[in-house]
Amino acid sequence: MSSPLRTEQLTKRFRSVEALHQVSLDVPEGAVFALVGPNGAGKTTLLKTLLNIEQPTSGHAEVLGVDTRAMKPDLLARIGYISENQRLPGWMKTGYFLSYCKRFYPAWRDDDLAELIRLYQLPLDRKLSELSRGMRLKAVLASALAHRPKLILLDEPFSGLDVLVREQLIESILERTPEATVLLASHDLPEIESFASHVAYLNEGRLEFAEEMGSLTERFREVEVTLEEPTTLPGDLPRNWLNAEQSAVVVRFTDCRFDGRQTQAEVQRRLRGVRDVTARSMSLRAIGVALARSAEASVGAR
C-alpha cells in the first residue's frame, strides 16, 4: 500500500534563500506525524508545497498517490487543512460559512457537522470576525472534519490557545477521524508529545530525522559524568555527544545515539578518571532544545 504522503529530494528556493533542501519524507498511513523545528525551519513551506500552493524547485511530492503538481479539486476534497494564518471571510456568519464550505466536499456529512457544532458550541448567527481566535479555529476545524478527510494537514493550529481548548480540539481530531493520516507542523513540542506516533525534525530546510516517537525518545539521553578530578575535555568528542560542557568535575552532554554499554565504554575511553556515569530519559521538549542548541552552535562555528 502506497504512503498517503511522500516526498523525494524535495527542494524549494525563493531566489537566493533555500527554504527546503532535498527533503525525503515517507508518512505511513494512519500515522499522527509531527513535523517539528524552530520558526523559519521550512515547515509551512513544506505544507504549502504539499498542497500545490507553492511549486517545488526540484524533487517530487505525492499526496494520496498523486503528484502534487497535478492536484485537482476531487483530490483536494479528500484533504482537511487548518493553518494559524488561514484567512477567513470575516463578513460571513458561522452558519453560512459552514454551508458555503459544504459545496466543495462531496463526502460532507450533515450529521457529523451537527455533532461538531454541538461539541464546539459554535454560534451560527455570529460573524466570523466577531469570534475569538479559538472559536474561529473551531469553525474551520468543523469544516475540515465534516467531510471525513483521508489526510489532515495542520500548520501550527493550536498556537496561543489555552490548554483546555487545545486538548478538546486534539481529542476531537483523533476521535472523529480514526482512519485519517495527520501531519501536524508545530514548534510547540509539549503539545504533540502525548499523541504523535511519529516525529520529523526540520532545521534550516533540512530534514534531520524522521522516525517513530518511541524510537526517538529511546535513543536520546542526558548523560552526566562525574570525574575524579577536573580535566580538559578532548577536542575530538563523538558527533553524537551534543552540547558537551564541563563544570569542575562534572561533564554533561546529550547523547543522540544512546546505547547503555557502548556509551559507557565510550565515556571511559574518551575521559580520564571517570567515577560515575548516569543517563536520564528526555522529554520531546528537552530533545528539541538540545537539537536547537546544537544547531545554533554549529552555525556559530562556521
UniProtKB/TrEMBL annotation:
Cited CDD domains: ABC_DR_subfamily_A
GO molecular function: ATP binding; ATP hydrolysis activity
Pfam families xref list: ABC_tran (PF00005)
UniProt-recorded name of the protein: ABC transporter ATP-binding protein
Origin: domain of life: Bacteria
PROSITE patterns, sorted: ABC_TRANSPORTER_2
Organism, scientific name: Paludibaculum fermentans
The keyword Cytoplasm belongs to this UniProt entry's keyword annotation: no
Source taxonomy: Bacteria, Pseudomonadati, Acidobacteriota, Terriglobia, Bryobacterales
Residue ranges the record marks as coiled coil: none
